[in-house]
Design a protein that fits this description.
By secondary structure, this protein is an alpha/beta fold. The protein is built from 7 helices and 13 strands. It has a 7-stranded mixed β-sheet with strand order 6-11-8-9-10-5-13, sandwiched between helices. The protein has a 3-stranded antiparallel β-sheet with strand order 2-1-3, with helices on one face. Helix 2 runs parallel beside helix 7. The structure holds pimelic acid.
Length: 292
């Protein structure tokens, strides 16, 4: 599947002739949502996102549906694939640099995350709010928005949250990313997709940082990400079999929340370049890098 996407994005933003505007030529955005209705209300159990040229969409939809059926969280009751034409050329960005924190337990994870995010400017009150969201029992469909200083919740709907959408990676960058992650032994679809999402999120100037814990009970590595820390993977962020999880985006004080939501949900972004992966480091080593 990935090999067949070679040269799928030949047109770079700004590579057109004068007067051609910024219309996206034949690009579609795909979003997958898997829903289970084993409780009275439907529960969102996982999703996927991508931006593809029209000619690849049929094959990608098939791939999405196959993945959705074989998910570790079980067979969904409903699979919804949304396909939308992009009317705006995607903004091209770099993936965040990747590093894995040396961490051996959820207690250490929480303490390291508090230190890392405090350095990025997140108050302890905001961190309390964030941990209560990602460790609480409710699985939100999207991310919570938390004010980085006051810890106030800012998303209009606390169950729906905000879903970062319209994001993808060019085939060339995806190939390079695979090579870079292979060298660190972490080249999985989960890591690649989470990194693309985190890179789009961190790119907004009013989003200070992100905290993510997967709600997959078998996946115990989460991450914190920001433009200053990069993408910091956190092993043992939760106990195996725990279904808790979620995403929190921390926002600046002077933020215009609606414009951040618009960026996250509507602005198309493609990762088109990749940094090397730095392997593993202790929290002190990572903090020392900030202060250099
Ligand atoms: C998710 O989308 O379920 C979260 C995935 C987190 C991946 C963390 C990593 O292994 O880098």
């Amino acid at each position: 599947m990935r090999a067949s996407r070679k040269n799928a994005f030949p047109m770079r933003q700004g590579a057109r002739g004068k007067g051609q505007g910024k219309k996206a030529e034949g690009l579609l955005t795909l979003a997958l949502r898997r829903v289970s209705s084993f409780r009275a209300d439907e529960v969102h159990i996982s999703g996927a996102e991508g931006i593809y040229p029209e000619k690849l969409v049929r094959a990608v939809v098939q791939e999405y549906v196959d993945r959705a059926r074989d998910h570790p969280k079980g067979r969904p009751d409903r699979i919804a694939v949304t396909i939308e034409k992009l009317h705006e050329t995607p903004k091209r960005i770099s993936a965040l640099p990747v590093i894995t924190l040396k961490c051996s337990s959820p207690a250490y994870a929480q303490s390291h995350i508090r230190r890392l995010l405090a350095t990025a400017g997140i108050s302890s009150r905001a961190l309390d709010t964030a941990f209560s969201i990602v460790q609480g029992g409710t699985t939100m469909r999207g991310a919570a928005l938390v004010h980085a200083q006051s810890g106030r919740r800012l998303e209009p709907d606390r169950l729906r949250g905000i879903r970062a959408s319209r994001l993808g990676i060019t085939p060339a960058a995806e190939k390079k990313l695979s090579l870079v992650l292979q060298r660190c032994g972490i080249d999985t679809q989960t890591v690649r997709e989470a990194l693309v999402l985190a890179s789009k999120v961190a790119r907004h100037e009013d989003i200070v940082a992100e905290l993510c814990i997967s709600d997959d009970p078998g996946y115990t590595t989460g991450y914190v990400a920001s433009s200053s820390t990069g993408y910091v993977r956190v092993p043992h962020i939760k106990k195996r079999k725990s279904t808790a999880g979620g995403r929190v985006f921390f926002l600046n004080s002077a933020v215009n929340v609606l414009s951040v939501i618009r960026y996250l949900e509507k602005t198309p972004v493609l990762v088109s370049s990749v940094h090397p992966c730095s392997g593993k480091a202790s929290v002190n080593e990572i903090l020392d890098r900030y202060h250099q």
